[in-house]
Amino acid sequence: MFKSITLGQYYQTDSLLHRLDPRTKVVMTLGYIISLFLIRSFTGYVVAGALLAVAVALSHVPFRFIWRGMRGILVLLLITVIFNLFLTPGTPVVKFWKLQITIEGIVFASKMAIRLIFLIICSTLMTLTTTPNQLTDALESLGRPLTKIHVPVHEIAMMMSIALRFIPILAEETDKIQKAQMARGADFESGSLVARVKALVPLLVPLFISAFRRANDLAMAMEARCYRGGEGRTKMKPLVYAGRDYSAYLLFAGYFVLVIGMRTLRMLV
Amino acid sequence: MRETTAGLLYGERFLLRRFRFWHKDMIITKKLIHDYLKKDDEGNIIGRTRALDAVDLDVKAGEFVAILGHNGSGKSTLAKHINALLFPTGGTVEVDGMDTTDESHLWDVRQEAGMVFQDPDNQIIGQVVEEDVGFGPENLGVPTKEIWERVEESLRVVGMYEYRKKSPNHLSGGQKQRVSIAGVIAMHPKCIIFDEPTAMLDPSGRKEVIRAARALNEVEGITILLITHYMEEAIYADKVYVMDQGKVAMQGTPREVFSRVEELKAMKLDVPEATMVSWLLQRGGIPLPDGVLTKDELAEHLEDACPAAFDAEQAKPAQAGPAPQEVTEQRRSASVCANEKDEASDADAGSGIEIRNVSYIYNEGSAMESRALDGLSTRIPHGQFIGLIGHTGSGKSTFVQLLNGLLKPSAGSVWYDGQDIWADGYPRRQLRAEVGLVFQYPEHQLFEADVLTDVKFGPKNLGLPDEEQTARAVEALRQVEIGEQYYKASPFELSGGQKRRVAIAGVLAMRPKIMILDEPTAGLDPMGRDEILGMISRMHRERGMTIVLVSHSMDDVARYVQRIMVMNAGNLLMDGAPHDIFAHVRELEDIGLAAPQVTYILDKIRARGLPVRTDCLTVEETAEEILRAVGRTKNRD
Question: Engineered SS bond to B85: which of A80, A263, B80, B446, CB 3.0-4.6 Å?
Fold first, then answer.
């Protein structure tokens, strides 16, 4: 029943954000992350937060899905905040035992927390509104300049999309082989760590063999359908920027100018 | 000209189209030789196997050609030459006038000669149906707009247009193969090579694919080369080649080839059921022509041969006609047998496996929840040979996994020899030794460096001492007839049928009392299939082992089992002796199953007025019955 698993965390709905060109989303996400590290003041974070709020609202994705993406790194976030809180030197506010909390610590830790939270919300939002397939296309298209320095961009993208297609199949196969070995008395659940790792051999060997067999078959099927690398290939679904993409870029450029402007102003003052 | 063409009947138009390039050569191979080379780690050649030995093939444009032969006969190697995936060691291959070794035409050859492979999963590249169909045209550099047109057109031809936005992972095997066919059509080929496209499909999927292939040939005029080991798929061909040991052993029209029954049998190949029956009848003294291919032909020729035995009056109530006395006798004895069996097993009630009101739900509580079993109850007493039949998705695979505790029922209970297997502390690993389960394609679970060690895996898990492990492994390998010379061989060097037998030995070595085999013949050629089925039936006969044989082929099951369970929509639809089950042909057809082929042959003959029983299970039984009905039952042979 692994056939029904969905990879990534794409949330199926129709919204402006879903309809944006995946390249626009990738570029804006990267730009936004850079902007988060340029911002120094709390006012700056208010602006960044506002933009993010608009994006979340436009995406039509229920907030609990975004929250689900955050839950995973909550611990990491907490540790970072605590370390920064206690280990930043400066004017002490609270002091107990050998530890102290400084004003600088509070400011630094909260900025750090905001930065991390925004960063995660932003990238989660991108994966929620873009299928893995579109992402692969966007990366291939954006990475094209790299072919000049002999990076096999098309091949990497092709590998990614084949991996995406075969992960559910191999997951199902894993389940089947595991059950077949259990039917032969194999035990995957109990015993010491070493015993359990050893128990994986009868699972992994057949799985690798199967993956190689499939890879072989697939390569032959692709050749039979005249696949010969990215050169001279046309696209069934080429990426084309629409009006909304230009508006999005424009809006984002405005935001970026604002962020830089605020930063320079602060430096000047 | 267009008007005249439009005015013609469909059939005439089709003839015209065929006529247009009737004499044009599509595929020509001359003295084609291919050697597979075995190389050592440094790349030195240490051995060669001749896969093709001076093969001459001549396929004209617009023809439908079938290539038959069992696994290892060289037929797939031949197919890969036509698509320029392999190149000749000797001789030549020409596709539409182009030599495949001419590199300047490599991509033209691959575009003109499309190829559909065996495994539906391993040839689909796209994550969405339409993207996969577009893959070929993309590679050819077709402009975007035209790709969309071609994709739509191709998907419509194979009837998969409604599925264009679906993920291939959610399609059935037959549907996936149709997508692959569409992917080839979108490249506008002149000829399509089907390399065992139906070997991994269930009967309904098989029909879908063959129907699509025939339509392409008849409507679109595409040359078809069908490689198969299902004889009934070859009877529609214009020409049949039979391959054996890398050579063309026979060629001709289906009628010519299939009239040589003895030679085909010597090559361990099947012949269509109707051909087989008529051949047996010929030997029984009825003057029938050679090479009868279909049940209609058989019935017609039979009436011509012995008109006196046919009675037009009898013909009317074909199905529910008053059965001859003998039949009722036979039937009664069959059901009495079944009853006796029941009583006998009632005596030691509680032994064997008992399923009480079991349901199983996948992904319970999630959006993808699906109910695979729904309140199923049954009993599998020790000593029976049971056939479990159902189409893909009827719940039979889920059902067998419940029998040895690999799956835990969502509701209901499973009992083995009177104990609830899901009670606390029940030794379920022990249960798995007693109830052996062989999965589909069990050879995929082999992993050890040599055959013997792999078979010892089960006994080792049971914690047995080494000598005992070896003793059991050797015993199991003997049962599946794997000779000692293979014990130290790598399991991956064996042939398909041998690998499967080794994998079955891996379960047998645990000395199970009950053996469950999920589609043990899937993907095997007739020879491999007969070997496996014969072996299973011997295990039952000689060792009294309880067998549950899961299959979607009625023909496989009919001749061996005592009891048939028919599954549909997560429950048992029928349960009884084979004769009783096949009496319900209509109900079986309603759920996408079929009675054995011979049932239909007898049905046809009966409808023409020969009073025959229709509940025979094998071709031999069928021939006997027809001979009896026409009054020539004695002195056969």
Answer: B80
Q: Could you report the per-residue pLDDT of A77-93, keeping only the tens digit for each?
A: 888 888 888 888 877 77
How many contacts, defined by CB atoms under 8 Å, are there between A and B? Answer: 157
Q: Which residues pair with A220 in a beta bridge?
A: none
* Domain hosting residue A158, numbered range: 146-224
Task: Tell me: pLDDT of B557 over 90.
Answer: no
User: Does the structure show a pLDDT above 50 at B331?
Assistant: no
**B contact test, residue of A154, A236, A239 with most B CBs within 10 A:** A236
Tokens linked to A124: 């989660």
Distance from CA of B200 to the nearest CA of A (A): 15
Residue of A nearest to B185 (CA): A225
Residues A15 and A126 in one domain: yes
User: What's the pLDDT score for residue A269?
Assistant: 60
Cβ-defined contact of A183 to B439 (cutoff 8 Å): yes
Domain membership flag for residue A72: yes
Tell me if chain A has a CB within 8 Å of the CB of B487: no
Taking the C-alpha atoms of A129, A131, A136 and A139 in order, what is their torsion angle to the nearest 10 degrees?
Answer: -10
Res. B315: pLDDT tops 90: no
This prediction's pTM: 0.84
Judgement on whether residues A13 and A126 belong to the same structural domain of the protein: yes
User: Is the pLDDT at B1 greater than 60, yes or no?
Assistant: no
Answer yes or no: is A54 within a domain.
yes
Task: Give B634's contacts (C-beta < 8 A, 6+ positions apart).
Answer: none
- Note whether residue A135 is domain-resident: no
Provide mean pLDDT across the span B195-212: 88
Residues A33 and A117 both lie in one domain: yes
Of B83, B147, B436, the CB nearest to A236: B147
A226 closest CB neighbour out of B107, B117, B362? B107
Residues of B in contact with A14 (CB under 8 A): none
Q: Is B123 close to A217, i.e. CB distance below 8 A?
A: yes
- Non-local CB neighbours of B274 within 8 Å, separated by 6+ positions: B292, B293, B294, B295, B297, B298, B597, B601
Spell out which residues of chain B touch residue A169, defining contact as CB-CB under 8 Å.
Answer: 121, 169
Confidence band (pLDDT; 50, 70, 90) for A8? Answer: low
The residues of chain B that CATH labels 3.40.50.300 are 20-257
- Say which DSSP state B445 is in: G
Check whether residue A108 and residue A14 sit in a common domain: yes
Among A218-227, B147-156, B300-309, the range scoring the smallest mean pLDDT is B300-309
Closest CA to A174 of A139, A140, A210: A210
Between CA B183 and CA B177 the distance in angstroms is: 10
The minimum CA-CA distance between B456 and chain A, rounded to whole Å, is 10
Main-chain phi, psi angles of A42, to 5 degrees: -65, -35
Residues A14 and A85 in one domain: yes
Tokens found for residue B516: 């469950």
Between B635 and B274, the higher pLDDT residue:
B274
- What are the pLDDT digits (tens) for B340-365? 444 444 445 568 899 999 999 987 76
CB–CB of B376/B357 below 8 Å?
Answer: yes
Q: In this structure, are A41 and A119 located in the same domain?
A: yes
**pLDDT at residue number B330:** 40
* Closest alpha carbon within chain B to A204: B447
Residue found by looking up tokens 């699972």 in the block = A203
The percent of residues in chain A predicted with pLDDT above 90, rounded, is 32
Interface confidence (ipTM) of the complex: 0.83
Q: Is A59 part of any domain?
A: yes
- Taking domain B20-257, whether its CATH number is 3.30.930.10 is answered by no
**B444 in reach of chain A (CB within 8 A):** yes
B429 at the A interface (CB within 8 A)?
yes
Task: Provide the percentage of residues in chain B whose pLDDT is more than 70.
Answer: 89
A115 shares a domain with A188: no
Count of domains for chain A: 2
Whether A202 and B119 lie within 8 Å, measured CB to CB: no
The neighbouring-strand residues paired with B391 are none
CA distance B185 to A75: 54
Whether residues A151 and A123 fall in one domain: no
